[in-house]
What we know:
By secondary structure, the chain is mainly alpha-helical. It has helices spanning 3-13, 18-25, 29-37, 45-54, 59-63, 65-92, 118-150, 159-170, and strands spanning 96-99, 103-107, 113-117.
Amino acid sequence: xxxxxxxxxxxxxxxxxxxxxxxxxxxxxxxxxxxxxxxxxxxxxxxxxxxxxxxxxxxxxxxxxxxxxxxxxxxxxxxxxxxxxxxxxxxxxxxxxxxxxxxxxxxxxxxxxxxxxxxxxxxxxxxxxxxxxxxxxxxxxxxxxxxxxxxxxxxxxxxxxxxxxxxxxxxxxxxx
Length: 176
């Protein structure tokens, strides 16, 4: 969505006609349509500010900058949440993690202590994520291969039949 699209969308949200908006900012209806169609691409600040005010929004919203800020903010939150999950995972295995402004202290189960800068620690977290993702995908692929190898071709399979076969394969007493 470009600036013109955002201007038009906001104008319509407010129930304003092009004439209404033109009157509010002292321009012609044709100029409003030119803004909305993208004919005027480099909108000067003396136009953008009154336009945003007339549309009860901000120049940043009209320019689409807040969308980028939201995307960055959401990504930072996702990374923070992911980091916190990994810290919880490490701690569940007996590691002690202490976050400091520029470093991260890690104490192992054997009480060895290490200090990492935050960038290196985040790189470790990313490597853990990639390793876990890779291993999960590998396990799922292996499971699919097992299912495919044991799939019956002589009868139509049902979910119950597949589950029955899996139960037999997972029952160790069947293989003794």
